[in-house]
Each structure stands twice: as C-alpha cells, then as structure tokens.
Design brief:
The chain is an alpha+beta fold. The protein folds into 2 domains: about 1-55 and about 80-155, MAGE homology domain, winged helix WH1 motif (Arc Repressor Mutant, subunit A, Orthogonal Bundle); about 165-290, Arc Repressor Mutant, subunit A (Orthogonal Bundle). It is about 55% helix and about 10% strand. The relative contact order is 0.10. One of its GO terms (biological process) is negative regulation of transcription by RNA polymerase II.
Length: about 325
C-alpha cells in the first residue's frame, strides 16, 4: 500500500508540477481582474488532497479506493509529456516538507545522497523546480544560508512569521493560504466579504466544514486561528441585515506583510506587472515609503539611545 500511495503521489504531483496558466479570477471594482490561483496551485492542491492518507468511508472497499486513485492518476497525467526528472522533483518536495515539519537542517550533501542520487548532474534544475513548487503551493521559500557548506533553510514567503508548528499543530505549511486571504483583501480595497473569500478558496477545493489535507478545516483557520494570531480581523459588516461578515488585515499583517511584495508575488506568478493594477500599485508604493520612514525613525532612535549610553559612561 505504501508503494502504491508513493506511486500515486508522484503521478498526481507531476501532472501539475509545471503547468501554468489561470485557474479562476477575482473581479475588482475597477473592472480589473487578478488571478489568485494558478493552474499549478489548483492542480497540486487537489492532487495532494487526492492521495492524502485518510480514514475510509464505511462501506468502501480497498478496490474502490484503488480504482478511484487510478482514475485520478490517469486523468491527471493523460497526454502530458514524461520528464525523467519529475520523480526526483517530487521526491525532493516530499523531503523538504519532512524537513519543514521536523525543523531539521537541509544540506546539499544529504539531498544528493538521499534524493537526487544518480541524477547529481541535474541537481540545480531539480532544486529549482522543487523550490518553485514549495513557493507557489506551500508559501515557503528555499533559501541557501551558507554558500560554502551549501546548507538551506525553509522560510515563510513574504517574511511572514506565522508558524503553526509553534502552537502544536501538525501538517503542511499553511503560509500560502494566509497569503491568498491577505491578497484577496488587499485587491478588494482592503476589506473583503466572507463570500468573496470563500469564492476564491472554493476554487482551491477548500470548503467550510470540510477537512483539507494541507490546511485542515479552513473556516477555523481563517476565522479563529489567524484572527487569534492577529493576522486577520473578522467582523460584521455595518448595518447588514441579515448579518454578513468581512475580513480585514490585522495588526500583525500590517506589521509584517509588504503590499508591494504581495502584489509582486501574484503578478510574477502570472508573468504580469504590478503596474497593471494602478490603484493597488500606488497604495503599495505609499506602503513602502511609510515602511522606509518607520525603519529610519527606528534606526535614529536606536543611534540616539546608543549615544546617550556612551555619554553616560564618560
């Protein structure tokens, strides 16, 4: 069964690994549109969910599960060219996810020995593809922290410090879901209704009350966990009857998330340009200027304090 699941994992992930393009788009009030879910994201999220270990429904047989998995594998890989490096890329993604969960260091030597093996000449290409997958699907960057020793670290995208592991949660990185929600809010004018948020999440096969392999139950994550972590504010829309709710950035999101980097992240994925969205781009420029001023003020305050301490010593 383990071998069978491993095969299905490779087949399904490979199907979506290199596909690009738009899945669905979110309309803006200005008539513009920006995609929040690429075909790669959409496929990979669904593919990982399809092979995730789960309890079988009552009355289901192992043969039915195998037939279902075989059907998924066939539909996901049909008419796609076979790349001999795909298996290594998928194995490296699995390896990196394990390292993320265990917080163990990553070295080139270990990757070559455990994952790449006979494809050592293609190490950089395998690492590039796996890193892109980690970035787009899981919201995690693979950073080389020591060029001499060739050691790598897994860092949350956009500098976000959220880490579900600190609260004892298990599972895959959830940063990409946080990025998606923050992005929708920003592109919708800094507030998005609950309906607008779920419209986007449903495109990624994320539904309220339904457990997801990567993100768990998404409603709890976005309405409670991220609110408690102060990344989101979740409130009733003023004067709404019947009551409806909306999401806004929380204080921690304002402190950590650069609107320019967020806009660049989405437009880079789709080979677009931040200036294609002038109102968001102008707001992002103002945000960058305010952040720069805040850094200068903090630095000046620190220098002033250091000077005062030096003067007291004399």
């Amino acid at each position: 069964e383990g071998i069978s699941r491993n095969f299905r994992f490779r087949s399904l992930i490979n199907a979506g690994m290199e596909r690009r393009g738009l899945s669905q788009e979110v309309s803006m009030s200005q008539g513009q549109e920006i995609p929040f879910c690429t075909q790669e994201q959409y496929s990979a999220h669904n593919e990982i969910t399809a092979i995730s270990p789960s309890k079988p429904d009552k009355g289901s047989s192992s043969q039915e599960k195998e037939d279902s998995s075989a059907s998924l594998s066939k539909s996901g890989t049909e008419n796609l060219p076979v790349d001999p490096l795909d298996e290594k890329v998928t194995s490296l993604v699995q390896f990196l996810l394990h390292k993320y969960q265990t917080k163990e260091p990553i070295t080139k030597a270990e990757v070559l020995d455990v994952v790449v093996k006979e494809c050592k000449d293609h190490f950089l290409e395998i690492l590039r593809r796996a890193s892109k997958h980690m970035e787009v699907v899981f919201g995690v960057d693979v950073k080389e922290v020591d060029p001499t020793r060739h050691t790598y670290a897994l860092v949350n995208k956009l500098g976000l410090t959220y880490d579900a592991r600190l609260s004892g949660e298990e599972g895959m990185p959830k940063t990409s879901l946080l990025i998606i929600v923050l992005g929708v809010i920003f592109m919708k004018g800094n507030r998005a209704t609950e309906e607008e948020i779920w419209k986007v999440l449903n495109m990624m096969d994320l539904y309220s009350g339904r457990n997801h392999f990567i993100f768990g139950e998404p409603r709890k994550f976005i309405t409670k966990d991220l609110v408690q972590e102060r990344y989101l504010e979740y409130q009733q829309v003023a004067n709404s009857d019947p009551p409806c709710y909306e999401f806004l950035w929380g204080p921690r999101a304002h402190a950590e998330a650069s609107k320019m980097k967020l806009l660049e992240f989405f437009t880079e994925i789709h080979e677009s340009d931040p200036r294609c969205f002038p109102s968001q781009y102008e707001e992002a420029l103002r945000d960058e200027a305010e952040r720069a001023q805040a850094r200068l003020a903090a630095r000046a305050s620190t220098n002033s304090q250091d000077s005062s301490e030096q003067a007291l010593k004399f």
